[in-house]
Amino acid sequence: MQALTQKLKDNYHIFEKLFIFFILAQPFLDLLSYFSIPVSNPIRLLVIPIGALYMISYPDRRWSRNTFIYMLVLAVYFAINFSVNLIWKDPVSAAGELTFILKTFFFITALLVYVMIFRRIGENREWKVIVPKYLFINTSVVSVVMLIAELTGTGKRSYDYLAKQGHSGWFFSGNEISAILGMGFCGAIIYYLFIKKGLLAQIICTALIAVMIWAMLTIGTKVAFGAALLVLGMAFLILLIQAIIKRSNFIQSGVVLVLLAVTVFISPEMPIGNNLGLSVDMANEKAAQQQEQAEAPPLPEEEGGEVPPPGSVRQWSSWQLMALNGREEFFGTVLYYFERAPVIQKVFGMGIGGNYTGEEPRIIEMDILDWFFGFGYLGTLILVLPLLFVIGSILVFIFKQRFRTVSATALFSGVGACIGLGAAFIAGHILSSPASGFYLALFLGFLYGLVKQKPEKFFQ
Fold first, then answer.
1. For residues 460 and 457, what is the distance between their CA atoms, to the nearest angstrom?
2. Nearest to 44 by CA among 102, 113, 122, 1
């Protein structure tokens, strides 16, 4: 056993190269999944055992010991959660419960692994170019595939609701691809603006950036649209300041301004423009209907005293309906189950979909809420510990260095992480989705490594 452990420690750098190269595999794994080649999830779930081996082999003994102990605690908790729900839930899908657990386990493992990798290789400046370059490639692949799907009329609709427009190309989930493009666009902008390239490469990259923006508007989701406006706006301001101070980059700032202006002007005619107006109208209409129902006299109870579906009797304001974005019935239903669940399920969680009856389990698609209801008070506490540690450490590094570690690369990496975290709160498909959760883990690890390093110039 000692010989095996020593061999792992001698070859820990192989794991690091593997995980860095794994970044490039992401869009191709998603494409294989769309074309019914079921290898994406099994390959991604290999991150859990390989990540555990990397933790064992990590050169820093304190980090190696603490992260591996945390992984063991989390594995024991997941075993308890799975057992509790097999006993207390009826009906219960063992496969569904296990899938929910493994996907969540993947995100936590990927987060810890990439934090450890970028913490160790921080002094090697090569990775500060490689990661944005790989993110640019990934985002370009997704966007070009969506363009091909548009030209061939083969894109998958982003929404089942026919009045809403948009497609996700040859990718299954519009919400996942929206989050991936939103986060990936931050990495693409880093490579596009702050990494030196020749004239021809700049022209090609500009064309690909334009395709990325088109793709983010074509999906029809708020996350990608908001990310496009935010990132372009920030990029223009930074380049403008740089142009004024250094009297350079006037052309680049002009190009970004044109991209931002075109994005704003064409948005009303794109799927996102239709969907934003429709979301506001639907929220106001639902709020008005609920108000009318609340003011109307109660109907006589039908024979048999039929109970209305849980969640359908709650009253929501128009702002709550906008935030829930069509998820109000799922949220109300799972909350109904949680309020009536036994104490053991409140502590250890109700698993996927809560204590559903007679139908397939459905998640709320707001990750923090899905974690809370699925894993209970104890599980949520255990799961958020790494997130709190990483985010807290990043903030401590930034304030300790008096913001001197916040380079342009760190700034846009932070925006990418914030987009992922924000999407996890309002749109889901991040913390329990390997495809998009991978990028959030990568951005948090990358940002951790950036701000931990010695101060550097903002535009370095």
1. 5
2. 102
